[in-house]
Amino acid sequence: MSPRPMARPGGRSARVQESVHAAVRELMGEVGRGALTVPMVATRAGVTPSTIYRRWGDLQELLSDVAVERLRPETDPADLGSLRADLDAWAEQFLDEMASPPGRAYIRDALLGDPDGTHAGQCSAYAAEQIDAVVTRAARRGEAAPGTEVLMDRVVAPIMYRILFRPGPLDAAYARELVTNALSGVAGAGAED
């Protein structure tokens, strides 16, 4: 495991990270993941290869870091007026994004370059934050809701397991079934609106 220096939240460090991440995304689109090299990324980003090696260790760790950023949700979960509707919509979108070919590739990259589990934990935190927003919103509406960890275990975990270990077609009906099962036994939460 290579040591990674703590990145400053702004300044040059942030600009270097942004430039290198952009270079990786562009080059993956142009030449493909298999042809990508650290010198190629460095040239495109306008940094030296040693900058990349010093900050990320190797190409796989860099790809992992880029993947984690790509897996970060860009928007808050939709507010459709009820816990059930919000969770259905979120779970369907989560499944659709994660099970897509790019989503699967990002998941693989995030995990492959993550010897200490930091990136996996960050990806999990992204999902938990999204679910927590839905649960908090439901509580403000006076709806009963299971806790975030229950929903992580009953909705997110099965989706990720299927994506990683039982690849095959997954659809919105599967996501809604997981939500139904997660909400069973929660007073008023499983009712259709």
Topology:
Blueprint: H1 11-31, H2 38-45, H3 49-56, H4 59-71, H5 83-99, H6 101-112, H7 118-140, H8 148-165, H9 172-183
Helix pairs in contact: 1-2, 2-3, 4-6, 4-7, 5-7, 5-8, 5-9, 7-8, 8-9
Describe this structure in words.
- This protein is an all-alpha fold and about 190 residues long.
- The chain folds into two domains: about 45 residues, Arc Repressor Mutant, subunit A (Orthogonal Bundle); about 110 residues, Tetracycline Repressor, domain 2 (Orthogonal Bundle).
- The chain is built from nine helices and no strands.
- The N terminus is likely disordered.
CATH superfamily of the largest domain: Tetracycline Repressor, domain 2
Gap from first CA to last CA: 50 Å
Number of helices: 9
CATH class of the largest domain: Mainly Alpha
Shape: elongated
Mean pLDDT, to the nearest integer, reads 88
Number of strands: 0
Query: How many structurally independent domains?
Result: 2
Features:
193 residues, mainly alpha, Arc Repressor Mutant, subunit A, Tetracycline Repressor, domain 2, 9 helices, 68% helix, 0% strand
